[in-house]
Amino acid sequence: MSPVGIERDIGSLQLEEKKLVAEIKRTAKTGNELIRLRHQISNLQGSRAHTGGIATHTQAMHANTSVATGMKSVSKAMRALNKQMNPAKQMKVMQEFQKQSAQMDMSVLDEVGVDIASQLSSVPKGRIDGKKVQADEWYAGS
Hints:
By secondary structure, the chain is mainly alpha-helical. Helices cover about 85% and strands about 5% of the residues. The protein contains four helices and two strands; from the N terminus they run αααββα.
């Protein structure tokens, strides 16, 4: 090989080296872009999850606010109702109702013809706990 041929070979090898270095730099840039894109995707996925959490939290806060508003209305209605109701008067009404109900029961029994006293006289007489007690005496005493 002649020195001129060697020089030519060296020059062509150096040119090929420069091309390879340039291609390696382009590939490295592409690799770096790929890494950057993947990092951005990961960040956006994290942001999406965070945004979903915030939306859920906001919905929960809205629901709590609605419940609180409803409870405020109920509380206000209960206060108004308590102001209108007199507990002593309500107790008197309940007692009167119980009295009327008992009278109604007795009236119904009378209409049907149930005479408890006459039915008790037919109950057998005997000893209870060593004591002789007649049904009429027992009924009259209670």
